Amino acid sequence: MPELLFMDEPTLGLDPQSSVEIRELTKKLNEEQGITMILTTHYMDEADMLSDRIALINHGKIAALDTPAELKKKVSGSDMVILKLNVPNLTPKMISEIQLLKCVNQVLAENPRELKIYAKGEDANDSVIDAVRSSGGKIASIKNIEPTLEDVFLKITGRRVEEKAVHKGIGEGLRRRHGVF
Questions:
Q1: Which of 49, 71, 93 is the last residue in one of the domains?
Q2: Do 30 and 92 reside in the same domain of the chain?
Q3: Which of 49, 77, 130, 180 could disulfide-pair with 162, CB 3.0 to 4.6 Å?
Q4: Burial state string for 106-134 with b = 16 or more CB within 10 A and e = fewer than 16
Q5: pLDDT tens-place string over residues 95-126
């Protein structure tokens, strides 16, 4: 068996069952055979599951290199909050009210009912809830979530979905469809 194994996008295009089998085999080879793996992937969840250390690459250069947990701390910090908010009657006015809050860094519409909100401060939850309610919103659920490696990549590179869409010439339609405001 080799001591070093390079894997380039090993689960790209595979069905979910095959992807799980490849990830399990990868873990097994590493743990039982002691094989060091160098894995390239665009699937941040896969990188998080399989990696002891991750290098985030932006424009061909290493933007960050650390353990998944340490990379996530760069996003969450001591006072950063990521909220997932389900508002069945979500309107552009409510989104604008949330964006105007001093504690809010970024608002992303996950779908027509859900927002992902990046905010700072211990009163962020209360401020966001108050903004939604004052705009006539009915909150079905609110959840504080842990940052993902995708959140880390977006924060470290300073790039957002809308910037990538414009860069690729896709423009306004993609930004609206993906809910970037």
A1: 71
A2: no
A3: 180
A4: bbbbeeeebbbbbbeeeebbebbeebbee
A5: 999 999 999 988 888 788 888 888 888 788 89
